[in-house]
User: Fold this.
Amino acid sequence: MKKMIDVQHLTKKFADFVAVNDLFLHVQKGEMFAFLGPNGAGKSTTIKIFTTLLAPTSGEVKINGFDIIAEQNRVRNSFGIVFQDQSLDDELTAYENMDFHGVIYNLAKNIRRERIETFLKLVDLWDRKDSLVKEFSGGMKRRLEMARGLLHEPTVLFLDEPTLGLDPQTRNHIWSYIKKLNQEKGLTVFFTTHYMEEAEKYAHRLAIIDHGVIKALGSPTELKTQTHTETLEEAFLNLTGYDIRDENVTSAEIMRQQRKMRPH
Amino acid sequence: MIKIIYNLKVIYILWLRQVKRHFRSKSRIFASVAQPLLFLVALGFGFQSMYSAAGNGDYIQFLAPGIIGMSIIFSAMFSGIEVISDEQFGFLKETLVAPVSRLTIMFGRTLGGATVSIFQGILVFAVSLLLGFHPESWLMLPVALVFMILMAILFTSIGTAFASFFSDMHAFPVIINFIVMPLFFLSGALFPVDNLAKVIDIIVKINPLSYGIDGLRGSLLANFHFGMWTDFSVLIMVTVAFLALGSYLFKKIEV
Assistant:
């Protein structure tokens, strides 16, 4: 089986803070892999490194067989991503957002037209294609992001909390698209979520990360057996503790603070 | 060759996005003409009699090119804020994970911002015609346009450079105002630059905007202070330098 994500000795430091500490991980082609952890555990930092937004401090990461540093553009062509917070242009229409994406991923005009239709239909937004995104609800925006992330037919799809803040209906819809793509096209999916039941239901395997270190790795059943717990949520709490984590220790916040302190 | 076409397409779509966004916001277009109009009317008619009494002729004639230049640099510098708002509202990430070089993104953005500023300049030019401004020679209009384009690109890249450096959306307008105001006041936009006090004279000569204003005024009124080619060469050099700086800083953005 081909390794779609292959991580060795990955470390990321922000000054003295170690966000990701000597991480080892691999995800097979066609796998649905959940990456779980409390706030500030290093999830988003890891995804940012995988998606070439952040450079690692040390270690090696290969996506679809390509090195994230040496073969950056090949890596970028290989993955699609749905970010945690929205990344659409509100003042453009759904179609224009899709078309913009198609152009910057170098898709020919006829292919763009064809695929935009296919994917907007997949997420049930085709009849709203000419509406400005600012008129969309949160769920519609997330569905559009999903369609956009798939437009260049990536082999790996990264989803950073794809269902955060959505109602059960929309969550259910979004997971059904993802599952369909995973089963029919063998799309590899790497996702983070705080909803344990989603990980339990959809992930083939999962990793639990805390303080930048992987605490456990395996199938949902394996993790439950290992921790002698009934549900994945209990297993999760068992592994990461019951303390509340402060939101402001997320790596994004740390970076923001550092940028203010130190001009680059 | 295929790579060049691809990059040009990316620049085009980035450019198109900014132009679309601008023209969809009528209030933005209106607001950016309001301030230059105020300057033209208040200063133009306010200083009119004094200026002509001093034997310099019609002040509106003198002032209009300066105010056109002003509208361009304000709009160009402030277009940098789109980098910050794209960062805050997330869209920047969409471009940063795409298989495109940052340089291409920076060029597309700069051209988009510059186009919008040139449009504002032309709008203010039209307004000034209504207020009594008349170019000496309509044949020199293309030359005036060249100077408008150069100013627009120069100050858009300065704006982008600053925006890549400061990620604070609220601080940005304050900082830009802090830079734009002295550049504008000490550029010869409002007063003739001959026989100035030594210090002011030096500042005016260092200020790249002076050459833009002079180029614009020179081509519209057939009367250059520094000379057309001097204006042109200075602007080209400074523009290239700031495009390079802007690209360098833009490249270093981390989200």
Q: What stands out?
A: The radius of gyration of chain A is 18 Å. The interface with chain B takes residues 48, 51-54, 72-74, 76-77, 79, 81, 83, 85-92, 96, 99-101, 103-106, 148, 255-256, 259-260, 263-264 of chain A (CB under 8 Å). Residues 3-87+154-261 of chain A form a domain with the Rossmann fold fold (CATH 3.40.50.300).
